[in-house]
Amino acid sequence: MPTSYDVIIIGAGAAGLMCAATAGYRGRRVLVIEHARRPGRKILMSGGGRCNFTNLNSTPANFLSDNPGFCISALKRYTPDHFLELVERHGIEHEEKAAGQLFCQDSSREIVDLLMTEAQWAGVEVMTRTTVETVATQNGGYTLSTSAGQFHSQALVVACGGLSIPTMGATGFGYELARQFGLPVIPTQAGLVPFTLTPNLKTQLAPLAGISCPVAVSCNGEQFREPMLVTHKGLSGPAMLQISSFWRPGEALTIDLLPDRDAAQWLADQRQQHPNRGIGRALSEALPKRFAQAFADLQGWQEPLQHFSKSELASTAETLNDWQLTPAGTEGYRTAEVTLGGVDTQALSSKTMEVHDRPGLFFIGEVVDVTGHLGGHNFQWAWASGVAAGQAV
Ligand code: FDA
User: Fold this and answer.
1) pLDDT above 90 for 383
2) Which in 40, 141, 302, 341 has the greatest CB count within 10 A?
3) Which fold, 195-330?
4) What is the rounded CA–CA span in Å between residue 248 and residue 329?
5) 52: CA distance to ligand 1 center in Å?
6) 380: helix, coil or strand?
7) Taking residues 261-268, what's their average pLDDT?
8) According to the model, what pLDDT value does residue 350 have?
9) Which of 337, 343, 367, 387 gets mutated to test ligand 1 (max ligand atoms within 8 A of its CB)?
C-alpha cells in the first residue's frame, strides 16, 4: 500500500517549499520529494551567494508570458512586502543593492534555512535524494512511484523548476508530467543568459574583456539601461542578461554606448573644442577609459577628429548611438538563470495554479510560463505562486 498524504509536492526549491509551509500551516499533511541531496540548491547559488530574494518594485510588467495577465492575481495577493516581513521575522539582515532589489547581507543559506524552518514548524516532511519515476491517477488522487517506494496524495503540486543549470538538479520532468496530463507546453528557451559571439567578433572584442560600461540595449521593442560586461566568451552583465530574454537567434542587438547623448552633436562639439584629439581620447570622457580606447581601435578610428569628414562623423555617431551587434547565440541552459516558456497558463487557474480540468493537480514556480526580469522578480513569482497553491491544496 502506498503511504498516503494530503499533498505531495515534487521539488524542494523556492516555490515548492513556500507552497509546502503554506499548506502545512492549514493542517494539511504534506510531503515534499526532492531528487537532489539538498533542498534549495538554486537559492544557495542565487544573487552571487546572497540571494536577491525579492524586488520591492515588482509588478506584472516585470514578467514575460504568452498570457501576460496570468501572474497578476497571485502577485497581488502575495507581495514583496509579505516576503520581506517573513525575512525580518527570521532576523535576516538584508540590504537594497539597486533600486528595489533586496539581498541577504550575509548568505543565501539564510533563505533556505528560513524555508526549511517554516516547513518544519508547519509539520511538512521533506524527503531528499528521492527520484519520482512515474505518476498515475488512482482513487481520485495521484500515486507516485519513486526510488523510495510508492506514495499517494489527493493533491499533487509540480514545482520542478525549469531547465537552467542541469548540474544543480534541473530536469524537464515538470514538462513531461504536463504533457502526460495533456497540458500544452509553450516552447522553452534559456533566459537571463550571456551572449556568445562569432569567432571573428570574439577576437575583436577580446581586448575589452573584463570591462563593464553603462549602455542602453534594445531588441524587439524592449530596452534596458544597465551595465554591459565584455567577457572572454562574449557579452554579459545586467543589460545583456535582461535583453537575452527578448532576443531570438539571428537577431541583432542595438547598443547605445552614449545613452545620455546625441552622439552626432557631441562629436561635432568635440571636434570644435579638441580638433587634434582622437576619438578614443574624446570617448574616454564619456565611457570607461580602457573601453573607450579599445572600442575606437576596434572601429579603426585612429585619426584626429579634425580629419573626419561630415559623413564619417555621421557614421561614427551612428555606431555610438546604434551599434548593431548580432550575437552567435547564448550560453544556453548551462548558465541561464531562468527558462522562458513552460506549462501554458491557459490550462491553469490564476487564483490557485490548479489545472482547470484535473482536480488536485497544480503547477507552480518556474515550470509555468511566467518568467521575471533580472532583479528578484523570479523569486517573487516562486513565493507568490507557491502561496497561491498552498492556500488551495
Ligand atoms: P527550482 O529550480 O528552485 O526548484 C526545483 C526543484 O525541483 C529543484 O530543487 C530540483 O532539484 C527539483 N527537481 C527537479 N526535477 C525533479 C524530479 N524529477 N524529482 C524531484 N525533484 C526534482 N532569481 C531571483 O529572483 N533572484 C536571484 O538572485 C536569482 N539568482 C539566480 C542565480 C542563478 C545562477 C540561477 C540559476 C537562478 C537565479 N534566479 C534568481 C532564478 C531563481 O533561482 C529561480 O527562478 C527559482 O529558483 C525558481 O524556483 P522553483 O522552485 O520554481 O524552481
Assistant:
1) yes
2) 40
3) Elongation Factor Tu (Ef-tu); domain 3 (2.40.30)
4) 9
5) 13
6) helix
7) 94
8) 98
9) 337
- Average pLDDT along the chain: 95
Ligand 1 centroid – CA 235 distance (Å):
24
Q: Are 21 and 115 in contact (CB under 8 A)?
A: yes
Neighbours of 167 (CB within 10 A): 7
Question: Is residue 2 over pLDDT 90?
Answer: no
Where residue 141 falls (left for φ over 0; alpha for ψ -120 to 50; beta otherwise) is beta
Report yes or no: 319 and 356 within 8 Å, Cβ to Cβ.
no
The answer on pLDDT for 201 being more than 90 is: no
What is residue 205's predicted lDDT score, i.e. its pLDDT? 86
Protein residue with least CA distance to atom 30, ligand 1: 46
| Contact of 316 with 292, CB cutoff 8 Å | no
Residue ranges of the domains in the chain? 3-188+339-390, 195-330
| Alpha carbons 212 and 98: distance in angstroms, whole number | 16
Mean pLDDT of 80-106: 97
Residue 66, Cβ neighbours under 10 Å: how many? 15
User: What's the pLDDT score for residue 166?
Assistant: 87
Ligand 1 contact via 11 beta carbon (within 6 Å): yes
* Cβ of 376 less than 6 Å from ligand 1: yes
- CATH number for the domain whose boundaries are 3-188+339-390: 3.50.50.60
- The 8-class DSSP code of residue 157 comes to E
Residue 102's pLDDT is 98
What pLDDT is stored for residue 48 in this prediction? 93
Q: How many A from CA of 42 to the centre of ligand 1?
A: 5
What is the spatial distance between Cα 38 and Cα 284, in angstroms, rounded to a whole number?
Answer: 48
Residue 346 DSSP symbol: G
Q: What distance in angstroms lies between residue 244's CA and the mean position of ligand 1's atoms?
A: 19
Q: Tell me the pLDDT band of 290, cut-offs 50, 70 and 90.
A: confident
Question: Using a 6 Å cutoff on CB, does residue 330 contact ligand 1?
Answer: no
Cell of 360: 488536485
pLDDT tens sequence across 142-190: 999 999 999 999 999 999 999 999 888 788 999 999 999 999 999 999 9
Query: Distance between CA 49 and CA 107 in Å, rounded?
Result: 6
Integer Cα distance of 49 and 104 in angstroms = 9
Q: Which atom of ligand 1 is nearest the CA belonging to 11? A: 7
